Known about the structure:
2 copies of one chain form a homodimer.
Chain A: H1 17-30, E1 39-40, H2 43-50, H3 54-66, E2 70-73, E3 77-80, E4 106-115, H4 119-125, E5 133-142, E6 145-155, H5 160-164, H6 174-182, E7 188-197, H7 200-206, E8 213-222, E9 228-237, E10 243-247
Antiparallel strand pairs in A: 1-3, 2-3, 4-5, 5-6, 6-9, 7-8, 8-9
Chain A binds a DNA duplex through residues 16-18, 42-44, 52-56, 58-59, 61, 72-78.
Amino acid sequence: MNNRLVSAEAPDDRLPRYQQVRDDLVRRIAGGEWAPEQAIPTEAALAQTYAVSVGTVRKAIDQLVADGIVTRSQGRGTFVRRPRFDTSMFRFFRFKSRSGEPVLPVGRVLRRELAAPDETARAALRLAPRDKAIHLSRVRLVDGQTVIAEEIWLPREGFEPLAKLALPDFGDLLYPLYERLCGQVVATASETLTVGQADADIAALLRIAPASPIIVVHRTAFDFAGKPLEWRFSRGAAAAFQYEVEIR
Amino acid sequence: MNNRLVSAEAPDDRLPRYQQVRDDLVRRIAGGEWAPEQAIPTEAALAQTYAVSVGTVRKAIDQLVADGIVTRSQGRGTFVRRPRFDTSMFRFFRFKSRSGEPVLPVGRVLRRELAAPDETARAALRLAPRDKAIHLSRVRLVDGQTVIAEEIWLPREGFEPLAKLALPDFGDLLYPLYERLCGQVVATASETLTVGQADADIAALLRIAPASPIIVVHRTAFDFAGKPLEWRFSRGAAAAFQYEVEIR
DNA sequence: AAGTGGTCTAGACCACTAT
DNA sequence: TAGTGGTCTAGACCACTTG
């Protein structure tokens, strides 16, 4: 999974040149050589650096664009993309405020602990068998009403600053926080949707009838190099769920 | 929706050449000039036909590949892709036979009528206000047990042969039937997922408890030119539902 | 061996952005 | 005006498939 985002440590001579260039650019972006929103070198400069033609560099960058890693802007340059999927629950849920407009739910961390993750989370984060991890219990609110309940697991390594941060300071969006405080950039994520039934706790939290259907979203978030940074599962009322797909 | 698949009737001179070539190829494929699984002309031949360089043709074909309209095969040629999404419910549901392997459900048409579609179906098929349409009630079975119930609407125009076909002759897969009997090729589709509750009828059909959660999939299927060919909605037990997405 | 798509080059000119 | 990405060309050679 996410193989195309994993850069080869040893650039493979058997691969086409544009693939090697692409892989090296991914490696450099993952290594923080250019921060999100920053411009990478011009196509001409890269062509010289890698000793290939501009056309080959263009093909490499075409792939980075397709992968969502960079964006091009004619006349300005090519920029490392800052992914923003703290709003991505909107893919699945349609939340409206009382006044009717779509709205970004407020985030609130209720609890934080250092604990041993269950096997699913441990495997997703590729942790050693008895490693502990940071666990956050978080809710998302619209008009003060809980619409999503989330359980979030983070490896200790790389996320130490979060272990001390005051809970109210977590704010509404976590991924910008990861980047600002921990230097960890979420580049891609993989999600699995299933339908479950609300137990008593979740039903009370979401103010729905016990046993009514809920959507459960499991997400693993990765950095540019394909390393798992976060595992979470989110639960919301199925009544608010709607999802559209294009098939071809 | 599906704008990128709709070919301009008048090729726009302001567009890049590779876009014009792409649009014309879509138009010709939609017009049936090359059937699914057939090869389109070679890149060199197309370059001559359109009086552009091979590189420009390649860029046009790159887009058709990205759109899922053709596939390339090195050394063999470029072929019109035959979309196969009668299996696409597997995107959403995981059905296993009694023996445990994943299995393609059997299809059975229970009922057929010529009737006025409801407003949703009418709008999806872009029919005139009082047009009638072909309505099929269909179930999908695994080991003799109904796992999905489907209501399908088709425009009369283009699907006349289906109005007379004996119900058992519909077979398991409808889209190959549309192509064989009616010359209609489904190229893309757009689906919307929601969660509902089983009413008494559906609960009995699916053998689940009344009011238990069901997944409702609304689908509009389009031909290569972006014309809607079919509108359907499918209902299955939410317990069998699972869906994975990659985000970037 | 002939023909196909896949890679790569070295340039030209255009469209857009910044200054 | 200078510099960026966007389009386009005309070729070369490679890798793969088919007869």
